[in-house]
Design goal:
By secondary structure, this protein is of the alpha/beta class. Helix content is 41%, strand content 17%.
């Protein structure tokens, strides 16, 4: 395989089936990093990035997509510029903007680069969060950045910019949420899709231990059970996916190191939901468990 990056030795070993072990997988992930439910998820993402392909992390809210992107950035020893998409995202938010500056006493117009231009110039990762929240007419600005050309014509300076070695794109998407729009085929075809499921079982237990103040084994096991129940209820349509957010579970675990667990669940999970029926369902689960 021809690498797009000068890969750290540990990553090279992970991509080599003859050298791959459970130990070198677990050693790669720093405490607090994203530990995938299975090794293939990490290997596939690393493989795609190492060949210069863009990856699209697709999964429910709170599943750990941003943490996954941060972990990949760390593994590649690559800084990462971020874009948080919304309906207000425009060319200036992506590319940069012009402003007045001074050279001595002379007033000049200066271009201030945005995250796309900065990541291209520095040869680093670009993370585009909630990419399907952006207006459909905005993202085609960077189509050339996302394909084999790795170039863009700066609309503010007319300069043609080519990305330096090491540049790569990681995007994340939550499907079916209010305010999102389907990605057009031209954009979607520029990505390799990595499905990111909820973390469960031993992986979640390890994550709680490393990312929260809660260290009581019995209590951690109960929160792991609660998370499994919430994921199952969301899958069955009894709850919105927001209710099963791993981020919310971690918040509840943190709080429960100080306040009673049922109150922690109420503050961190149930109270975030709009429907009273869903809140009552969650608190009923919490009451049964705790």
């Amino acid at each position: 395989m021809t690498a797009h990056y000068d890969l750290p030795q540990q990553i090279s070993d992970l991509l080599d089936e003859n050298k791959r072990t459970t130990d070198n997988l677990s050693e790669l992930i720093r405490p607090g990093g994203y530990m995938p439910p299975n090794a293939d998820l990490l290997i596939d993402a690393i493989s795609a990035l190492s060949m210069g392909k863009n990856i699209l992390l697709k999964g429910p809210t709170g599943a750990g997509k941003t943490k996954f992107a941060e972990t990949l950035s760390s593994l590649f020893h690559q800084p990462m510029y971020s874009v948080n998409c919304s309906v207000d995202l425009d060319a200036e938010s992506l590319i940069g903007f012009k402003t007045l500056a001074y050279e001595g006493e002379k007033q000049v117009i200066e271009f201030v680069p945005g995250p796309v231009m900065n990541s291209m110039a520095n040869g680093t990762f670009l993370y585009i969060d909630e990419i399907n929240m952006a207006k459909p007419e905005t993202l085609p600005l960077i189509n050339g950045v996302l394909d084999y050309r790795r170039t863009i014509t700066n609309p503010f300076t007319n300069e043609i910019v080519t990305a330096n070695k090491g540049f790569g794109v990681i995007a994340a998407i939550n499907e079916g949420y209010v305010g999102t729009v389907p990605l057009n085929e031209a954009l979607k075809n520029r990505f390799v899709v990595i499905d990111v499921p909820y973390i469960e079982g031993e992986q979640l237990k390890s994550l709680i231990k490393s990312n929260t103040r809660l260290q009581d084994e019995r209590m951690i096991d109960l929160f792991v059970s609660l998370s499994a129940d919430l994921v199952q209820a969301a899958f069955q349509g009894k709850l919105s996916e927001d209710a099963a957010s791993i981020r919310a579970i971690l918040d509840a675990c943190d709080l429960s190191s100080i306040i009673p667990p049922q109150r922690a669940v109420q503050r961190a999970i149930a109270a975030k939901l709009d429907e009273e029926r869903e809140q009552e369902f969650i608190m009923s689960l919490a009451e049964t468990l705790f």
